[in-house]
User: Which sequence fits this backbone?
């Protein structure tokens, strides 16, 4: 009898340990589920905030919102847009220059896209037709914009 009682007690302890292990596993699984829900929700929230910010920024650029606090915050974005625009244009010109290999027609020396005169022979450099067209300067980001544009190609504001 004593042996049966000891075995029964041992089995009971094992069953209790298994039950505690199951509970800990369930708790760990619930914790993981909660963490996953939090992570997914934070990502979705960030996406919505980005979309909201972009929508508000668009309305600011179009002059539909004139809140001073939002306007001051948008100035940082305008400067970033300006940097992005200028850098993209520079990259585009560099790639175009690399593909064309612009050289002086008189002495065959390499030229940059901005050169108006050849640095080697002093001859005038023929400019592309669109460079002679009329430009206006954006009042917000100060980028030259080919006329007749209604919106700035850099910051997107509506031009007067």
Assistant:
């Amino acid at each position: 009898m004593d042996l049966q009682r000891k075995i029964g007690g041992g089995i009971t302890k094992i069953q209790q340990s298994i039950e505690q292990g199951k509970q800990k596993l369930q708790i760990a699984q619930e914790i993981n589920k909660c963490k996953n829900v939090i992570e997914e929700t934070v990502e979705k929230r960030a996406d919505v905030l980005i979309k909201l910010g972009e929508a508000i920024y668009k309305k600011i650029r179009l002059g539909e919102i004139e809140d001073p606090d939002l306007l001051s915050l948008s100035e940082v974005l305008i400067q970033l847009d300006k940097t992005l625009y200028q850098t993209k244009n520079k990259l585009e010109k560099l790639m175009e220059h690399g593909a064309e290999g612009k050289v002086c027609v008189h002495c065959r020396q390499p030229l940059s896209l901005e050169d108006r005169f050849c640095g080697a022979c002093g001859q005038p450099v023929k400019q592309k037709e669109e460079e002679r067209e009329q430009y206006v300067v954006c009042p917000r980001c100060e980028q030259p914009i080919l006329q007749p544009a209604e919106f700035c190609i850099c910051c997107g504001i509506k031009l007067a």
Remarks:
- The chain has two domains: 1-66, 67-101+128-160.
- Residues 67-101+128-160 form one domain.
